[in-house]
Amino acid sequence: AQKITQTQPGMFVQEKEAVTLDCTYDTSDPSYGLFWYKQPSSGEMIFLIYQGSYDQQNATEGRYSLNFQKARKSANLVISASQLGDSAMYFCAMREGGAQKLVFGQGTRLTINP
Amino acid sequence: NAGVTQTPKFRILKIGQSMTLQCTQDMNHNYMYWYRQDPGMGLKLIYYSVGAGITDKGEVPNGYNVSRSTTEDFPLRLELAAPSQTSVYFCASSYEAGYSATIYFGEGSWLTVV
Predict the structure, then answer these.
(1) Is B83 helix (H, G, I), strand (E, B) or coil?
(2) B59 touches chain A (CB under 8 A)
(3) pLDDT value of position A6
(4) Residue A30: how many CA atoms within 13 Å on its side-chain side?
(5) Stretch B26-48: mean pLDDT, rounded?
(6) Beta carbons of A45 and B48 less than 8 Å apart
(7) Among all residues of chain A, which has the CA nearest to that of B88?
(8) What is the reported pLDDT for B101?
């Protein structure tokens, strides 16, 4: 069965510092995709970054990068040079090959302090 | 850029009432989804559709119905509303299936059943 674990309910970081949000996953399917979404206080779900199980390099999108450690089943989100606007809930999610559903973790609330 | 549009944004229902959450997308995506998000939790799949005329159940379909008469529209019907259906509902879409397909979400609909 799929499972996504985010062990950090909340994190507090000073502005301009880098931050790592943890995500571990559990699947027996060799084909899967890992996603990170941002949910600001306004409520919408914003897609940030994607990593495929066969991708050799870590995904990057601007200030976001994904630290993908396949053997450890870990897909941590790294935000460089954090900004006040990064304060939000962050969700890690996984989709197995052939599966319709995207399975979400419980999220991490990130607060950026000025 | 419209993307995925949901209405209404907020709604209060009395126990036993029925209502329809509307969802439309203008990206010509074949795949559409309805998720619900309970407080402090990640999202769970209610129903999905792989194309016009084809729908299927997700993890938590009880108490809901869907239809897909066009590629663009995927309404979610709540029959006999119950307090347990108090949640935030997200409609989403993707161009294709498969583990690498990014799912794009609407802005959410906040539903309270009293």
Answers:
(1) helix
(2) yes
(3) 95
(4) 1
(5) 92
(6) no
(7) A43
(8) 86
pLDDT (tens digit per residue) in A59-85: 999 999 999 999 999 999 999 999 999
Q: Are B60 and B82 in contact (CB under 8 A)?
A: no
Residue A110: in which H helix or E strand, if any?
A: strand A108-113
Q: How far apart are CA A78 and CA A60, in angstroms?
A: 9
Which of A33, A44, A46 shows the shortest C-beta gap to B99?
Answer: A33
Q: Residue A8 class from Cβ within 10 Å (0-12 exposed, 13-18 middle, 19+ buried)?
A: middle
Give the number of other Cβ atoms within 10 Å of residue A79's Cβ: 23
In chain A, whose CA is at the least distance from the CA of B55? A100
Q: Smallest Cα–Cα separation from B63: which of B10, B13, B107, B6?
A: B13
The predicted pLDDT at position B100 comes to 84
**Spatial separation of the C-alpha atoms in residues B111 and B35, rounded to whole Å:** 13
